[in-house]
Design goal:
By secondary structure, the chain is α+β, with helices and mostly antiparallel strands. The chain has 22 helices and 25 strands.
Length: 831
């Protein structure tokens, strides 16, 4: 997805990892539009250094197909993180330096080899994951399938090195023998020294009864005043001089043997590491390719995470339209509620920008600090982000063309070194832009014609804009020259725009209005700040009556637009508040219904307990009457009444779906939305959407359903219709529902899961039987039975019941992430 610079000097490794760098867009423009800051923020979402380097080296592409592929990868990564939020690249590390060292014959440390092993394991796991999900994420799978895993390298490292970085005895037969002999030598040495320490003859001469080490040799702490009492070699003394650390002559040979074993162990370990390093060097190209693929996948996930934090959406990247020989280049710029990605999302004011089929030039006017420059930067930066493969902070429905290059002249171009004034700096940059821009370029010019005589600046600005329009170059400019307002109004292909200013607060609103030029506001601001009325009136008299009428007309237009905007905002606010109240009402009704069921259930249990007491009392009376040889008819009639009462008590109270009156219409379902599938009573994520149907990912299951069967997750539920009068006095049956995807009539879904934990076997058997009948009637393809692990009796009962049940086609234990042996997944027959 991008390109990266590797900190190594080997050109072979650089080419293998980087490939061929594409032609870069105008570097000055990238810096002017603060594109590197976007890449730096993107890099912060990467999981390791290799992908972060790739992020910092990303460049916008001028190829439509490549841009669409990049956008598709970001979209798939976003969908994958929604359905599998725990997915990561595992333990991948930046192993480029280790590979470079191994290629040049260096010996890697155990920690370096473990990093290589963990990276290969992460790559292997990613390949297995995407092989299972190829149909859902084809673009990410294309990256993963290129990921090679060098055969045997993971096993070779695992056989030689533990996860703590220690070399195993089994790394080689020779190392096993050396370590065995070394342990024997060590035990002999320790035994000899321990006998000397424990010898009563030596005890008075020792500072302490312990064995220590100096310079790799085992020694005893001898008191300095008894020097010579034990024949030995002095290796060190304490800082006070009171203790000498001596090696008794009796253990010198044993110390020598142990030290020789240590050196032999070191040499054999180095030989093993060198052999493994040689294997790494031979697999360098595969390792670099694997690292490159892992970094590409991690970069896709970083793009998705960045888009999620920006609340960004995927733009629709479109080709240049064919215009039939007109000057219009066929470019498309349509941004809906676009925000600058580097500004605080809580305070930034979104803008709408649209250049229609007849427009390819935009002249923005308005007061200083009003947001003109931010508007230009927003448009330019979002074009760069989109062509890089990043989602943009704008609403869905935004469209952009893929420009071959983007040129921007924004800010102060003053250069002391080149003796250039601000005006000269701008002119120099504009000349460079004119030499390089063409019909497939986007040109952005800030404060066109500023920094010099107003009359000459306006003439130059008009001539430049005319030149760009005649060449058919998409151009966005800001200016203070009123002559350009008239030019934009009268020139085909050019449209006015303005940023608004609040005369009450004397602050800009930062809102962009397309189609209306900006107002001068100079006299109004001066008057608002307290300029004497006589001076204001004198200034007005100097203005042309035509200009005054035009300004008054613009004031009225802006006033009417502001009134319309406020009315629209009030309506939107009222709608939002109504939806909020609707949700709160639905939640309160849900809570009330839960409390009602809880109270009824508590009363039912209490009644059941009392009935059981009455039954026990009847049984006692029956036994007494039997002993007394009295008739039992009276008792039997009482029992029949109790059984009738018991049946009514045992009937559980069903949950009623609360009716929420006047529910507001929900917005249309879009790609990536979390939805509830009514027919399955399950939630999932929309992966694909058509005119009438959508594909929904529910866990590991993909389901196609009609849009009418879907509702946004968290949407208020509506109550079922009341039963007809004829049904009074008995339990009303819910009407069957029609499965939208097939047109077949099904009963309401009981849900995809049944939790039997804590139930007795008999009760669980009855609940399971009723649930399977309901699931079969609802047309569910499979169900999940939760029984827990425990002693296994409930699991055995469930599986015996499933084996005998006529609606069950097959069943199996749940997967690792589904609960393992504590869950059984049953596939149902189709009705």
């Amino acid at each position: 997805m991008g390109f990266v610079t590797i900190p190594c000097t080997d050109p072979v490794i650089f080419i293998l990892f980087c490939g061929t760098l594409p032609a870069l867009m105008d570097a000055k423009t990238l810096n002017t539009l603060e594109y590197p800051k976007i890449l730096e923020r993107l890099a912060s979402y990467c999981a390791f250094a290799a992908s972060a380097d790739k992020a910092r080296q990303l460049q916008p592409s001028d190829d439509l197909v490549e841009v669409q592929e990049r956008q598709a990868r970001t979209r798939e990564a976003h969908q994958m993180l929604l359905t599998r939020p725990d997915l990561t690249i595992g333990g991948a590390r930046d192993i480029r330096a280790s590979i470079d060292l191994a290629r040049h014959g260096g010996v890697l440390l155990p920690a370096d080899l473990l990093d290589i092993k963990y990276t290969l394991i992460a790559g292997r796991n990613l390949v297995r994951t995407f092989e299972r999900l190829e149909s859902q994420f084809p673009n990410l799978f294309q990256i993963a399938q290129q990921l090679p895993v060098p055969v045997g390298l993971i096993d070779a490292i695992s056989r030689a090195i533990t996860d703590r970085g220690e070399i195993l005895d089994s790394a080689s037969p020779k190392l096993a023998i050396i370590r065995r002999d070394m342990r024997i030598a060590h035990d002999r040495l320790m035994a000899k020294l321990q006998r000397m320490v424990s010898d009563p003859k030596n005890t008075p001469y020792l500072q302490e009864a312990l064995i220590t080490q100096r310079d790799g040799r085992y020694v005893l702490p001898l008191r300095a005043e008894f020097k010579g009492r034990i024949k030995s070699i002095v290796h060190d003394q304490s800082s006070s001089g009171a203790t000498l650390f001596v090696e008794p002559l009796a253990v010198v040979e044993l110390n020598n043997q142990y030290r020789e074993m240590q050196l032999a162990e070191r040499d054999e370990e180095r030989r093993i590491l060198a052999e493994l390093s040689l294997q790494v060097g031979r697999s360098a190209e595969d390792l670099l390719l694997a690292l490159d693929c892992i970094a590409d996948l991690d970069l896709c996930f970083a793009c998705a995470k960045y888009a999620d934090d920006l609340s960004a959406t995927e733009p629709n990247m479109v080709p240049f339209r064919k215009t039939g020989g007109s000057r219009h280049p066929g470019s498309v710029i349509r941004l809906v509620q676009a925000r600058h990605p580097l500004l605080d999302p809580k305070t930034v004011v979104p803008i709408d920008v649209e250049l229609d089929d007849q427009t390819y030039g935009l002249v923005i006017t308005g007061p200083n600090t009003g947001g003109k420059t931010v508007t230009l930067k927003t448009i330019g930066l979002l074009c760069l982000m989109a062509q890089t493969g990043l989602h943009i902070p704008a609403h869905s429905g935004s469209q952009l063309s893929v420009f071959d290059d983007i040129y921007a002249d924004i800010g102060d171009e003053q250069s002391i070194e080149q003796s250039l004034s601000t005006f000269s700096g701008h002119v120099t940059n504009i000349i460079r832009i004119l030499e390089n821009a063409d019909r497939r370029s986007l040109v952005i010019l800030d404060e066109l014609g500023a920094g010099t005589d107003p009359q000459e600046g306006a003439a130059l600005a008009r001539a430049l804009l005319t030149h760009l329009m005649e060449r058919g170059i998409t151009t966005l400019v800001t200016t203070h020259h009123p002559e350009l307002k008239a030019y934009a109004h009268s020139t085909p292909g050019v449209v006015n725009a303005s940023v608004e200013f609040d005369l009450e607060s004397l602050r800009p609103t930062y809102r962009l209005t397309i189609g209306i030029p900006g107002r001068s506001n100079a006299l109004a601001i001066a008057q608002r700040l307290g300029m004497p009325e006589a001076i204001i009136a004198d200034a007005r008299s100097e203005l042309s009556p035509t200009d005054l009428r035009a300004e008054d007309l613009l004031d009225e237009i802006h006033h009417q637009r502001e009134l319309a905007r406020q009315a629209r905002m009030a309506a939107e606010k009222a709608r939002t508040e109504a939806e909020k109240l609707q949700r709160e009402l639905a939640q309160r009704l849900e809570t009330i219904e839960d409390e009602r069921r809880s109270l009824l259930e508590s009363a039912r249990r209490e009644a059941q307990e009392r009935l059981e007491e009455v039954e026990r009392e009847i049984q006692r009376l029956r036994k007494e009457l039997a002993r007394a040889r009295q008739p039992l008819e009276a008792i039997e009639s009482v029992e029949e009444q109790i059984e009738a009462i018991q049946e009514s008590v045992e009937t559980p109270e069903e949950r009623r779906t609360p009716l929420v009156p006047g529910a507001p219409p929900r917005r249309a379902i879009r790609l990536g939305d979390k939805v509830r599938l009514r027919s399955l009573n399950a939630q999932g994520v929309v992966n694909a959407i058509g005119e009438e149907e959508a594909e929904v990912q529910i866990g590991v299951l993909r389901v196609r359903a009609r849009l009418s069967d879907l509702e946004l997750a968290g949407a208020p539920l509506t109550a079922p219709a009341a039963p007809p009068p004829a049904a009074a006095g008995r339990k009303a049956l819910e009407p069957p529902t029609e499965r939208p995807a097939t047109g077949v009539t099904f009963s309401p879904s009981p849900g995809l899961e049944l939790d039997l934990r804590g139930m007795r076997a008999d009760d669980a058997w009855d609940s399971l039987d009723r649930y399977l009948d309901s699931a079969y009637a609802a047309g569910l393809p499979w169900v999940r039975i939760i029984h827990g692990k425990g002693t296994g009796r409930l699991r055995q009962m469930v599986r015996e019941a499933l084996q005998q049940h006529p609606h069950v086609r097959s069943f199996q234990a749940g997967g690792e992430k589904e609960g393992g042996d504590g869950v059984t997944v049953a596939s149902l027959r189709t009705s």
